[in-house]
Structure formats: C-alpha cells, structure tokens
Amino acid sequence: MKPLLPLRSLIAIALSCGFSVAPIRGGSAVAVEDPAQQSLHELKDQFRRPAHVPFPKANPPTPAKVALGKALFFDPRLSRSESISCATCHNPSLGWSDGLPRAVGFGMVSLPRRTPSIRNLAWGAAFQWDGRADSLEAQARMPIAAPDEMNMPMDAVVERLKGVPGYAALFREAFGDDEPITARNVTAALATFQRTLVSGEAPFDRWISGEESAIEPDAKRGFAVFTGKAGCAACHSGWRFTDDSFHDIGLKAGEDLGRGKFAPPGVIAMQNAFKTPSLRDLQIRGPYMHDGQIDSLDAVLDHYAKGGEKRPSLSFEMKSFELSERERRDLVAFLRTLQAEPVSVTLPQLP
Ligand code: HEC
Ligand code: HEC
Q1: Nearest ligand 1 atom, CA 148
Q2: Domains 8-51+201-336 and 63-195 fall in the same CATH topology
Q3: Please, how many CA atoms are within 13 Å of residue 7, restricted to the half-sphere of its CB?
Q4: Can you tell me the distance from the alpha carbon of 227 to that of 164, in angstroms, rounded to the nearest whole number?
Q5: Which of 65, 93, 266, 282 has the most CB atoms within 10 Å of its CB?
Q6: What pLDDT band is residue 265 in, cutting at 50, 70 and 90?
Q7: 8-51+201-336: which CATH number, 3.30.870.10, 3.30.1490.190, 1.10.760.10, 3.40.50.1360?
Q8: Does 5 score more than 50 pLDDT?
Q9: Ligand 2 pocket check for 315: Cβ under 6 Å
Q10: Pocket lining for ligand 1, CB < 6 angstroms
C-alpha cells in the first residue's frame, strides 16, 4: 500500500474551509504555493481518470469484435437452458449487476456470492471476488461452464453457435480465420466487449479536473474524511476506488474463505479476504459486500467505524473511528458524487 497522505490534517482543513485548488489547463499543473493546497492538488491527482482504455496486445479491439462480444454477452443460447445470458445477472439497467444479495443461477439455484458490477475492468488485474481469474478472457469461461450458472461446456457452446445462422459471418469479421467459431474467440470477444464498459464522467471527475463548483462543500469535506480520518482510501484508492487487492475487513464470516482458498497454508491475511470493490456508481440501496450481507450504506459505515471483527486475518488497515453526524452525511455526499449519469444501452440484434 502506498502512503497516501503525508499531510492529512492540513488537507482536511483546506477542504473544510473551502479553499479552491489551482485548476489544470492543457495538462500542466499551475504552481501552487500553499503547502496544504499543494498536497490537496497531489492527492486529487491520484484520483484522476485516465484518458484511454487499455487493451492487451494479445487481444486488440476492433468494432467488429466489440459488436460480436456484445451479441454473445446478451445471448441466452450460451447457457444450457437457453434462458440465461451474461446480462441476466449483469443487467445494464441494474448497473451491470442484478440488485440481489446473491446471484441466482441455473435451475434458480441461489449462489453463494453477489454479482459484481463489471464496469472499469479493463484496468483490473485479478477477477472474481477471490481473484481466481487472471484475465477477462479466462474469467469468461467460468460462468459459462459452471454447472450452477450457465451450465454449458465450452465445446457445447461452440457447437451451438455453429448452428446459428449469422454467427459465422460475425466471427469471421471479428477474427478473420477460416474456422473462426472457437472457445478462444468466444471468450476474446466477450472480454473485449466488457473492456468497453467504463463508468461515465461523474461530478467528482469534473471536480478533479478543476471545476470547483462541480461538487458541493459537503462532498469536499466528505472526500477529506474518506482520504483522512476514515482511512477508506487505504484500499479504495485511485480513480476506480479500488487497489485491486484482497482484504479481510472483518465481516461476518461464513464458509467462503475468499482469497484464503488459494493462499498457501500459513498465510493468515488472505483468510476471509475478498477483492476491494470499486465505489464508482455504487448502488444507492445495497445490498453490499461479496455475499450481500449488509443492506444499507449506513450499516456499511457502522461496520467500518467499529473496525470489523478482530481476528488474525483482519487487515491492519481496519481501524475503528468515530464520525460525527455531519462527517457521516459528508462522507455519503462524497460517495454520491461518484455516480455518473446513466448511459442508455441499446440491446444488440442477435443473429
Ligand atoms: C448466474 C448469474 C451470473 C451469470 C449468468 C454471469 N455472471 Fe458474471 N458474475 C456473477 C457472480 C456471482 C460473480 C462473482 C463470482 C465469484 O466471485 O466467484 C461474477 C463475476 C463476474 C466477473 C468478475 C468481476 C470482477 O470484478 O472481478 C466478470 C468479468 C463477469 N462475472 C462476467 C460475466 C460474463 C462475461 C458472463 C457471461 C459469459 C457472466 N459473467 C455470467 C454472476 C453471473
Ligand atoms: C482494508 C481495506 C479497506 C478499507 C480500509 C475500506 N474498505 Fe471498503 N471494502 C474493502 C473490501 C475488501 C470490500 C469487500 C469486502 C467483502 O465483500 O468481503 C469493501 C467493500 C465496501 C463497500 C461495499 C461495496 C459493494 O459493492 O458491495 C463499500 C460501500 C465500502 N467498502 C466503503 C468503504 C468506506 C466508506 C470506507 C471507509 C470508511 C472503506 N470502505 C474502507 C476494503 C476496504
């Protein structure tokens, strides 16, 4: 973890007094004299959105590949029952999730984990709540083949898609091969489509890029609480508000050990550890956490204020703290500035 705040308290003071920060023009920073403003400026810089979406060299994007990936993402024929698509659980009108505490899969089976949103994953390093997939390409096979999700072996998917008139042309356009409908190309197209799902610009982003009036003073104070006293930015760092790492935050533990399942014996810190979720476009009403165990934002804040259950695996970044009523409201006001205007998604025409 990078130390974030050499001058936490100064920043908090600067923010609560409503000092403005020198705007950035043409990419170069305006010199700022006041040390508190200087460090606020540096802090804000850590939350600046990148200008471009990264794609891996091995799977470069083309419009044809994105269009194919989108069709596959919305196509229920990728599931055995022909009734579950990726979008059944990752529904664009529910923030690319499903609004449920835990996902419901094949045969209406309730799964142990909550469906995460899938925005901003082009920048991700490890996928699933426990990080067991190291790329979006590798991840895409998992829900298709899982018996309690889409329940379709990849070979069966390929056979079925070969039987759908229209897919051959789409795959050829995207991949150009003679035998383009392969498991590898299915997952490559799905991964490419998902990399294009990026959160829209939120009021917070406009503030970061210098528009002082983009967010209210309460949200600016909330940012100071978030990065200061409450210590949230220790894990929810960077413009995606995640360090892409795994932590035990001391929630009610069940059978699911999270990252702990993959840790060598003796590595205590990974027991009960799950991937830090992004806080962009956070659902206003829960459910929250990997298993939907917390249902309101107030209860999330209570959990952090208490510091979580003390156990050997608890992250050392989890420290209890007290928030005044105002600080609590400010923190929530700040989190709301991470919400972008909803983008309308046109459903693809399936072949
Ligand atoms: C039955 C509901 C369901 C279906 C169908 C489904 N998912 Fe998911 N998705 C989930 C759940 C639950 C998780 C978390 C799984 C875990 O951590 O073990 C998840 C995790 C993911 C992640 C990882 C996100 C992250 O932040 O690490 C990606 C990417 C993803 N799904 C993409 C897909 C794609 C692509 C499809 C279709 C091929 C799909 N999902 C189908 C429920 C579903
Ligand atoms: C030690 C690292 C760490 C710190 C500090 C931390 N978080 Fe988290 N946060 C996580 C992890 C990891 C999860 C997912 C835990 C799980 O599901 O088991 C999470 C989950 C959340 C969620 C639920 C998001 C969702 O989609 O379910 C919210 C909201 C949240 N954190 C807000 C905060 C706030 C506000 C603070 C500061 C008061 C904070 N976090 C401090 C690591 C941290």
Answers
A1: 1
A2: yes
A3: 15
A4: 52
A5: 65
A6: confident
A7: 1.10.760.10
A8: no
A9: yes
A10: 78, 84, 86, 88-90, 103, 105, 111, 113, 115-116, 118, 121, 127-130, 136, 139-140, 143-144, 149-150, 190, 194
pLDDT of 222 over the 90 cut: yes
Task: Name the DSSP class of 275.
Answer: E
Q: Take residue 307 and report the two structure tokens written for it.
A: 């510091």
Sort residue 151 into left (φ over 0), alpha (ψ -120 to 50) or beta: left
Residue 186 has pLDDT above 90, yes or no: yes
Q: How far is the CA of 309 from the centre of ligand 2 (A)?
A: 14
Which of 42, 137, 149, 212 does the annotation list as catalytic? Answer: 149
**Residue 142 buriedness (CB in 10 A; 0-12 / 13-18 / 19+):** middle
Domain segments of the chain as ranges? 8-51+201-336, 63-195
User: Tell me: the pLDDT tens digits for 123-158?
Assistant: 999 999 999 999 999 999 999 999 999 999 999 999
Integer angstrom CA distances of residue 151 from 13, 82, 108, 124, 155: 55, 10, 12, 26, 12
Q: What is the pLDDT of residue 23?
A: 32
Average pLDDT, integer, range 247-270: 91
Task: Count the alpha carbons within 13 Å of 180 in the hemisphere toward its beta carbon.
Answer: 17
Does 82 qualify as catalytic in the annotation? no
Q: Quickly state the pLDDT bin for 345 (edges 50, 70, 90).
A: very high
CATH topology of domain 63-195: Cytochrome Bc1 Complex; Chain D, domain 2 (1.10.760)
Q: Which residues have CB under 8 Å from 189's CB, separation 6+?
A: 65, 66, 68, 69, 72, 171, 174
Q: State the average pLDDT over residues 183-204.
A: 97
**Rounded to an integer, what distance in angstroms lies between the CA atom of residue 199 and that of residue 196?**
10
Give me the chain's average pLDDT, please. Answer: 90
